[in-house]
Amino acid sequence: MTHIAPAPAAVSATRALTLHFPDNTLLSLLLGDHDRHLVRIEQGLGVKVNCRGNRMAISGDPSRVEAAQTALNGLYRRLERGEAISASDVDAAVRMIELDDPRLPLSDLPAIRTKRGAVGPRSPGQATYMDMLSTHEMVFGIGPAGTGKTYLAVAQAVAMLTAGKVDRIVLSRPAVEAGERLGFLPGDLKEKVDPYLRPLYDALHDMMPGEQVIRRMGTGEIEVAPLAFMRGRTLKHAFVILDEAQNTTPVQMKMFLTRMGEGTHMVVAGDLSQIDLPTGARSGLRDALDTLEGLPGIGICRFDKRDVVRHPLVARIVDAYDQRSAAEKETAGRGRHRPEAEAS
Hints:
Blueprint: E1 15-20, H1 24-31, H2 36-45, E2 48-52, E3 55-60, H3 62-80, H4 87-96, E4 112-114, E5 117-119, H5 124-135, E6 138-142, H6 149-162, E7 168-173, H7 189-207, H8 210-219, E8 222-226, E9 238-242, H9 250-257, E10 265-270, H10 284-292, E11 298-302, H11 312-336, H12 340-343
Parallel strand pairs: 6-10, 6-11, 7-8, 7-9, 9-10
Antiparallel strand pairs: 1-3, 2-3, 4-5
Helix pairs in contact: 1-3, 2-4, 3-4, 5-6, 6-7, 9-10
């Protein structure tokens, strides 16, 4: 008679652990108003968290429980250092939790320090980008809107200017109409192009007091100008940022990159899914990536939808457009490769 061994008892697919937070005042800040921060942790990581007194019980999938522990401990350490945490900080902590990422915990990641405070990464892609900004003289930041490509570059530029590591900041964008006619806008040249440069001004004002921005622009330490103003110049001891680089032509991009002089750092930021050039025109950003990829001394950071740090809906919108674009390409590909018999 054949004996069948009984199946081993199923191993529990859940894990539970308890965290202890000694300071009840800091714990209340960690929880947020009406436990809102806790709810974001639960929803973001798919765990159950219960708080009683100064103890917090976490249950769920073992890897998710470990991730929640890392996020909560990291946020608590920030509170111990006297830093405030907001809902966006909690979202950033959740976003940064990649179980194979050796840069955890979040609180130990380096930050860009400006006089307005420290600017830290809010996604794994941002952490990689910040590493590149501090170690490379030329960096390309490629990815969708809301990933912080320009904002972090401006933060690095301001930090280096205030530390005396560069003498000035030069911020530039191509003045390309996104479905609008620049020539029909009222005003002189400056008034026509200022709306295109507004995001750069906004980032500057986030990093520095307004009066300091105005003063430094008056002395030439900060320059915000259309790309066309770069021709014929050599930029030395400067931090130079080209925003919306997908709207350059290959000739413009080469012109910009070759402005680099002694002691200069350059950042090129753009989104290849939002090209406003005339149909059929090749993007200078795409051309530069094809030409320069792998060249020593150049850092290329590619962001994706997981790095979108604006409203959560922005990430879902980016994803929806990407999925539609992929589906359209697949449909077009099938149409091009139909057998002759089908096509007839």
